[in-house]
## 1
Amino acid sequence: MANTRKALERVPEEKFGWKPHEKSMTLGRLATHVAELTGWIPTTLETESLDFAPPGAPPYRPKTAGSRAELLDTFDKNVAAARSAIPGAGGAQWMVPWILLNGGKTMFSLPRIAVLRGMAMNHIIHHRGQLAVYLRLNDVPVPALYGPSADEPQ
């Protein structure tokens, strides 16, 4: 989480609207997504499922932070909530299936431990790497995330 926060701290507010390609997320949306992902951990432990577009209800609308301070606040709150939720989960609770739906249709059903690893942790790692590329393309020094970077050779 410390490395993820280092990457988020470097996101320039004036570049929140930048994106490398028309089909890509903006820098602000990508950074917000990274900040939000740890919030999925308590959701996974406290619910049986999540539907991004529940029938008869409004669909999930992605949010974009309005400032770096808001971005970091979102991340810090979500990390604290995740760190609080994980130790409270019993062993059997981790094996209970959790379901992700879209419009009432199952996208996947996995034990909560697999959701934590695959949908939360691996997803964070993937998008943090993508965020590092966005930073590089905007001439923002890339933090040492997976070992030294060209900007932090240590």
## 2
Amino acid sequence: MIDRIKKYLIDGEGETLDYKQEISSASKIAKTMVSFANHKGGVLLVGVRDNRSIAGIRSEDEKYMLDLAASFYCKPEIELELEEHNIGGKVVLECTILEGELKPYSAKGEDGKWWVHIRNKDKSLLASKIVVDVLKRQSSNKGTLIKYGKNEEALLKYLEDNDRITLQQFRKMVNISKWRASKILVNLISAGVILNHTHEKTEFYTLV
């Protein structure tokens, strides 16, 4: 068990691992939880500083805050696996979140609204409408039937010659509505033909 925690400390934060020195806000930690549930799952190490040094948790308050976040600030509710580890006389809390079966998961923000978050490298980012639709499609277990029309062909031809394209570039290129362009992108992502790349500034798409 201790070897696993040491490996987490060596690996550093990433798509499936996040360090928290303490849990001060249930709504903030809920964002990380749903981003893991919407992705491949992940582990929260509580009692660890960003520089990978061990601070230890101070009390049962951390467990309470995690349970509160998972129960009342995540929709659907997220089930947690909690395990304590004593390392050098300090307690580190390992909180495992499995990939969710009821995507998309959303977190209640400080504005009282529910927002879907996804994991990108070591950050939990707000999901775009296209990503939310892809998560819904994945969760529905329905196959994706693609009809390759001129718009799909134009998009794939463009991506053969160029590294990436944005939603705005695509809809302008083929002169269609944002709704129609989004639907085409969702279909192609769900079918595994193109990839979406979510960044803090601009979301773009590439061939698989």
## 3
Amino acid sequence: MKMKNMGAVFALMTAFPLSAAEPPVPLSAQKILGVFRELREAEAQSPTARRHVSVTLTDGEINDYMRYALRTTPRPGLESVTVKLLPHNYVSTFTVVDFDAVERWKPGTIPTLLKPFLRGKQSISVDYQFTAANSKISFAVEKAYYDKLRLPAFFVAMMIQIVAARQPEHYDTSKPLRLPFSLRQVWTESQLVKCTN
């Protein structure tokens, strides 16, 4: 089932505004904020004169940034997100989701057989593979688990869609997402994500 998103990781990362009143920004977050600034500046140039920007980030840098950003600007339905980047656009995530919020937002989302387990804030792991083409990104859920219980891919896709729609940016994961900053290519290698405009 196609949905979308390393753009979800990348788009989610870019959506976290950071308050100046917060404690000092960790070095990895400073690096990523600098990358965002550089990409915004390049995007502001005319397409014919646009400076080429190539970015490489480690999954450790992304995870440090996500922890800081979620602490500074909480996101509806999400407690934490950790990613592991693998070759060939394969991403493994470990996320703490507020299942009560998901069920409140769209009653009946959580299957009856899973309700005894998926309530409150619970950790799930989701592996997906993404495709980036024509400045858009889509993804397919490969497998998902709560503890050792395998979760149906269609349920996880629906849950992602509900949580994404509740974000201030109102992401629609039923179709490919546009890559931010006029990025054209995104791909992963072992523990790395690379992108170019």
